[in-house]
Every structure is written in structure tokens, then in C-alpha cells.
Amino acid sequence: MCGRYASSRAPEDLAGLFQARLEPREELAPSWNVAPTDPVWAVLERPDRDTGEPARRLRTLRWGLVPSWSKDPGAAARMINARMETVHEKPAFRRAFTRRRCLLPADGFYEWQAVPATATAKAYKQPYFIAPEDSSVMAMAGLYEFWRDPSVTDEDDPAAWLATATVITTEAADAAGRIHPRMPLALDPDDYDAWLDPAHQDVDALRALLHTPAGGRLEVRAVSTAVNSVRNNGPHLLDPAPA
């Protein structure tokens, strides 16, 4: 699974990297402890209001997908991940899989291993930070949806719409698999265009884009247990744990 990640790059850098237009009103501080229901950066393609042509944008979404047919947004905290093996079949994700795909940029992600108690120490969960060996951006494959809030009568009011996203996960590559059996699936740069194209709706072809993340070239390091609390944030969370 993916339940926490880091995303610290400046939006201007992300916009350039993904050749996306940065929405002028979008702001989001860097975070080294992104948690479910937080706002996150996403790269997606939507028709331009003036020309009708697809335009690639960098904008914020809330992490935790709310299907358009949901009665309320309460399901978001449970839908932070979608399994690659079944994402095209599940009612909550299958429509978004064919029409609303995105990339969620990350520096890397966290996973945990339980450490049992000893005679002198309590049991705890040891966090690990997992990231590409070359420090490149992880473009995590994602889906997004729009949910209409019925309590807001004017549909042109920005508050009438909640835009949310989920991270697609897969079986972990060797390095990450020693920590946890699942991990977010990061796309190869050569596949960005096909993944983001809303006109591309061939399910089998889309599923073929979902393969070994980062070619399995991942670095894993133990980090401080400070990341275990969502209240903590800052680059120090990536420092190696004391021996």
C-alpha cells in the first residue's frame, strides 16, 4: 500500500518536468509527510475551456478518492489506494481508470515494519523511506474524480466540487518488498503521454503501462520514528535513523 509519502519539489519545477501548466491560484507547501486527505499535487489533462483541446495541468487534489456517485465524501480516507490488478474492475475506480487518470509526483514513500518488544524496550513501528536510487521524481500512477456537493446550490461555486485522487499500487519490487508486499506504481516517462490522454480508453493497453516501478531500482533506508506522527514535517524526516 501507500499510506504516506514525501513531495517537496517546487511546483514550478514540477510544471517544467511534466510540461504542464501551473494553475495560477494553486498553492501547496512542500511536505515530507503527506498523509491521507491532504491536498497533493497532480498532473492531469482536461479540455481547455476556451479551445476545447486537451491541456496538461498541474493542480491540487485531495488524497482519497470519492466516487462521483457517493452520497457523501466520507469514503475518501478508505480509498487512498487502488490495486493495479483490479483497478479496472472495481466500481469505485473503473470509470476513472478509463477517463480520469493522473500522475502524483513524489520524492519517495514510507513503509513500516513492526519491531517486537524486548526486555528493555517497547514494541514500535520502524519507518523506512523508499525512493528511486537516482533521486528522480516518482510519477505515481493515479486516478481522480469530481464529487458534487449537493449542499452547495450554485454549481459554478468552486465549493460545489470536491476533486480527489487515489494512488495505484502493485506488488513491491525487490528492495521495497523486504519491507512491505505492496508499493505505489510509478510510470516510466515514455508512458506519461499515453497515461494522461483522456481519449485513450483501451483498458488492456492502459493496463500494459502499469509495470515494474522505477525498473526495481529503489533505495530503502530506515528513518526516524518522527514520521510516524502526521503532526511532524520537514526534511529532517528523511534523515537516516540512528544506528
Automatic annotation (TrEMBL):
Keyword Protease (UniProt): yes
Enzyme Commission number: 3.4.-.-
Keywords (A to Z) from UniProt: Covalent protein-DNA linkage, DNA damage, DNA-binding, Hydrolase, Lyase, Protease
GO MF annotations, alphabetized: hydrolase activity
Entry's transmembrane regions: none
Family of the protein in this entry: Belongs to the SOS response-associated peptidase family.
PANTHER family: ABASIC SITE PROCESSING PROTEIN HMCES, DC12-RELATED
Protein name per UniProt: Abasic site processing protein
Organism, scientific name: Streptomyces toxytricini (Actinomyces toxytricini)
